[in-house]
Amino acid sequence: MIERVHGIIGVILLGVICCNAEFYVACSGSESTGFEKKLTWSNNCTQVCQSDCNSTMETLSNCTTRVSQTSCGSTSTCVTNQGCVCNDPIAFKSTQALTITRDIYCYNSSVTVRLDKCAMKHYGFGLGDIFFGQPSDMTYAEVSSSSPNTSCYGSTVYTDGPMYQLSFTFGNKDLCNIVTEQNSSHLTFSVGVHAYAGAIASGIDRTTTLFLQFDCHYPRTYTKSYGKVMPQCNETFVNGSCTGSTFYAGRIAVTNLVFDERLLDPSSTYYNYTSFAMRKIITQLFLAIGVPVKRVVIFGLSNGSVVADYVVEVAPALGGAGNAQTAIQDITQYINNYTFTSQIPGVDSNFLNQYKFGAVIVKTADATVTQQIQNPCYSGTATCDSRAICTPLSLGSYTCQCALGYVDVQPSQPGRVCRSTCSLTAGPFCLNNGICIINPTNGLPSCLCQGRYEGNNCENIKQTTREEVVAILPWIAVGILLLFVIVIMVMYTRRRRYFRKTFADHSFLPDAGPSNSDAVVGLMHHGPGGHHSFLE
């Protein structure tokens, strides 16, 4: 790996926003325009929902994007009402490249890079400053004048602390100037990650640039072992993908998850979140025993802890009917007896070990199922809005319908443009910083009012109740009593000073001679004319 980070006058450290019971963090302006997100955090920063700055603030139960499982990791700390906040200082590693780079995932059709957000902020870079580019160093002028395609930029993820994630597929590699080399034995991606920040103004250079370069190599012919069967894969690359696939159908039970009625509704956020977790579980299980997975389709979730019916497409295709059946037996045996302790590239053993599994069923998918998952609803090519439900009809055809809580604003093309019922009013549905929530039962909007506001739209200031008055009366009494004591003390102090001053100004005591007590006695007993004039 080649690495270089250089800068001439310091870089600006920008904070990350971070956590107690569900709370909301507005856009702070710490990222470039278009890359900023509003955040909804859960208790202890274990879940987060990211939404656009100009959208209605969303709750975790109403998150229109996927709710992410999170951890603040080693370079940030969970802070109440802020979320994952970068440590200051961060923990630096032996090189800048190791400090910045968290993960690099290389596959034969895609590459993903994760950079530590706190480290990048330390060096002065935000998400909008970082992009995939040519695998060679560039001057500041070359970097700043480049116009990368939008697909070459990344997003923020929080799976193991705040990270910037950049990904590209074989299909858009040319847009990002990724260099690909192929020969009879290997496929190689040469990848460059570039970043720049700051500017040159009034002859002072305040610029900082970054360049990371790495290669990913893949053998064109290799062997996969399933235990008793050794199927050969002679890969033929077409647009970066291995041609030919085998489809397995099956069922998996995750016994330490609790079933919820919302899992019967494919349009619910909870279903989508659980379905995503199940896809990751199945992908990791197959990858752990050496079976590469192209995609996983969840056909339904049911009770029995949480049970998922799935179809998995694996590459390469296994040769020979007998070998395929033997492979199924071995896959089933290996998955059901595997302990996730070995460090297999791409396998997240910590993720898998947090779940407990019942029996995992694997069988060859029949022709009907194989044909069904080619439907656009499952292949990802459907044109439904992300807030719509895609329903497959037959091979190649489907319907889209806006999910509960969303209104179809383009009925001529159903389910293509769905808008939240929270955003249909001319102004904000909830006033005075109220948060709009969509009822998961009837899809109607309601408001979570802030502070002392109430009403259907948080339009009213709460009236003080009798209970509230009774609750504060003791404090009022204590305040009045305290004020009275202070006034008495002030009056006493002032009066005492007054008498002391008056006595000093009109003293009849002699300046010299007997003591004061003697002088007084003398005046009492020896007044003029022998009379006791003082006593009189």
Number of helices: 10
Which geometry do the CA atoms define?
Answer: globular
Compute the number of strand runs. Answer: 33
Number of domains: 3
Strand content: 25-35%
Topology:
Layout: E1 2-7, E2 23-25, E3 37-41, E4 47-52, E5 68-69, E6 76-79, E7 83-86, H1 96-100, E8 101-106, E9 110-116, H2 117-122, E10 130-133, H3 140-145, E11 155-157, E12 163-169, E13 179-182, E14 186-197, E15 200-201, E16 204-205, E17 208-219, E18 221-223, E19 232-234, E20 237-238, E21 241-242, E22 246-254, H4 269-288, E23 293-303, E24 306-314, H5 321-337, H6 349-353, E25 361-364, H7 367-372, H8 376-379, E26 388-394, E27 397-402, E28 406-408, E29 418-420, E30 435-438, E31 445-448, E32 453-454, E33 460-461, H9 466-505, H10 516-525
Antiparallel strand pairs: 1-17, 2-3, 3-4, 4-5, 6-7, 8-9, 9-12, 10-14, 11-12, 13-14, 14-17, 15-16, 18-19, 20-21, 22-24, 22-25, 23-24, 26-27, 28-29, 30-31, 32-33
Fold and architecture overview:
By secondary structure, the protein is an alpha+beta fold. The protein has three domains: 2-167 and 191-214, no CATH class; 223-367, Alpha-Beta Plaits (2-Layer Sandwich), CATH 3.30.70.960; 379-461, Laminin, CATH 2.10.25. Strands 1, 10, 13, 14 and 17 form a five-stranded antiparallel beta sheet that branches. Strands 2-3-4-5 form a four-stranded antiparallel beta sheet, with no helix packed on it. Strands 8-9-12-11 form a four-stranded antiparallel beta sheet. The chain is globular. The protein is 22% helix and 30% strand.
